[in-house]
Amino acid sequence: MALLIRPRLRGVAAAALFSLLAHLPQPAKAGPVLSASLGVGGQVAPDVHYQATNLLLAAGYGFAGIVRPELGMVGTLEQVRGGNVLNVGWELRPMVVLSAPLVPLYARLVFAAVDPFSRANRAWAYGGSLGVGFSFLGLGFFAEGGVLPRSVNHQMAWVTEGRLGASIGL
Known about the structure:
Layout: H1 2-23, E1 31-45, E2 49-62, E3 67-81, E4 84-99, E5 105-114, E6 123-136, E7 139-147, E8 150-152, E9 155-169
Antiparallel strand pairs: 1-2, 1-9, 2-3, 3-4, 4-5, 5-6, 6-7, 7-9, 8-9
């Protein structure tokens, strides 16, 4: 009977060890990083409304795992009917990610040009987010929440945003 239990325990112990090693924070590295994430948010002041889901694609370069400047492009599909995109909202986001090696928490500073290709609708946003991330089999996964206030028609609009994504170091 003891022989039947022992192989099962070995398998459980091996799986637990693999899981532990795969989820440990990776040591600090320098180099290029690509990331993609989905975000949802809402304006909380001066009035309250939800914003459409958006996709952020970003490229950056990490310096020793502590500072990572990034440039991201956000596309928001605000209205889609019958497969035709009627209005796409664009944002260009220069960002800086600050993190401590071997700690899964980070801060992201964001400056955004909202609708940067339109003279009439262009707005500026700035803010930041706090997030948590981990690595698994060479891929990084993260979740963050932040605030991106912006000036709309000379009035401050307070926008909150949550984001889930993945990244890979090259």
